[in-house]
Design a protein that fits this description.
- The protein has 140 residues and is mostly helical.
- It has one domain: Orthogonal Bundle (Lysozyme).
- A three-stranded antiparallel sheet has the order 1-2-3.
- It is globular.
Length: 140
Amino acid sequence: MTDGNADDHNDWPKEEIKKFMKEVIGKYSSTWYYSPFGWRLIGWSHYTLESTKDEITEQEAEEFLEKDYRLITRVCQHYLKVRLNQNQNIALVSFAFDIGPTNFIKSKFLERLNSGEDPVKVAEEEMYKWVYVTIIGSNG
């Protein structure tokens, strides 16, 4: 790893990242659904506070995914201060998308990566922490 702004030297392959995000998420949803976090989602896990129609086409889901890809990739490029390989970048963007930009920016995961720790070790020790969700008011 080297110091410096990650977007200066990292490979951020747009189509590969979007393909991986789709594979992780699965089939797009043409209608709204709720995530375990209670977020209202549509398409390929697109979150918005904007009021949109009740049902979308696959093309509209693609447009949402493109918008989400651009946002989360910019966040990763801005806040990641070390160099990762292409596959690690793909996984990083997908992870940041899954937990949301604010959670990603504040995460121990990003902090440890930026401190220069081995990315594989950091992923092994930090990513699993985001598997469990506590729903306020739930008994589980």
